[in-house]
């Protein structure tokens, strides 16, 4: 009596169609390309809502200090000869504190800044929520909490005197073009806040990039550290990276007592919040390490081999860290898990590209001294390629290990 035929295995079926053992093993070790259907495993209790709450709490130090610094810089400008604006934002402040002057204390300075920032953030939040609700209804999806953080980040990287209608246009562009057109939450390959900022930066340069927009006082005539360096009005030729720490101006920039965007002036507040972000593992330290390493190496190369007449080329990396929006971009923009690279090794390359491009843009483009914005958007485009290269390298290594 003959034995019944054995049921052909998956491997036998592969051989029947002429498929090699190499292809069969690839099918076992590499994802088959079909998306998961139904319920999936949940590793922990972290979801989008909790993640956004953590990011929001980590941004609070920069928010609170930013509101205080708005009042402080306006007070210094008024002492130097500028005047307090007459606008609707300061109506309640003027009733409570009788205007801003040289004698105004910490509470009044904070209230002065809050008078500007609260309408600023509410505008971004309402516009962002409006578009999120529309697209959620169109697609039949639930409303995610990510719009809170998009609006918060967008409001922190703009000058305080930016008109609200320009802010509404910018956040609309970021949400619609950079996010919703590609499928919404989790599908965007560009950071919505940075995309919106880039749009209004080039569309309305006199309303966003002008130095007078950074201080909430009429008649202000000053400059940021980046602007001074780009115009060769600062000399870093004889300053080492560690020697910068003995400069009082560096410490002012580190603590945030300088002119700049609302939430970007205090590197200390940003690094404190960013440190918590790293400890909670919401942000990946590999991206931050890549950005820092890329910035430091590129800055050192320009310090040793760059033109001595270019102040940006001679600027030590310690100054790059505390000027402009570098700290904010490194800790909260580059670490966006949606637009950054996914694989571990690719995250180093992704971060290093951001650090490299930031210094390169600052040195070579004197008309655009703030390079972190374009650097992150440029790296967002390269992130999928980095992941692909790492995945291919892993496949080749595993096949070689098994002698295939």
UniProtKB/TrEMBL annotation:
List the record's Gene Ontology CC terms alphabetically. Answer: plasma membrane
Q: Which GO terms describe its molecular function?
A: FMN binding; oxidoreductase activity, acting on NAD(P)H, quinone or similar compound as acceptor
Enzyme category, top tier: translocase
Residues recorded with modification FMN phosphoryl threonine: 224
Query: Could you confirm whether the keyword Transmembrane appears in this record?
Result: yes
What is the annotated quaternary arrangement, including any partners? Composed of six subunits; NqrA, NqrB, NqrC, NqrD, NqrE and NqrF.
Return the NCBIfam families for the record: nqrB, PRK05349.1
PANTHER family reported for this sequence: ELECTRON TRANSPORT COMPLEX PROTEIN RNFD, NA(+)-TRANSLOCATING NADH-QUINONE REDUCTASE SUBUNIT B
Put simply, this protein is called Na(+)-translocating NADH-quinone reductase subunit B
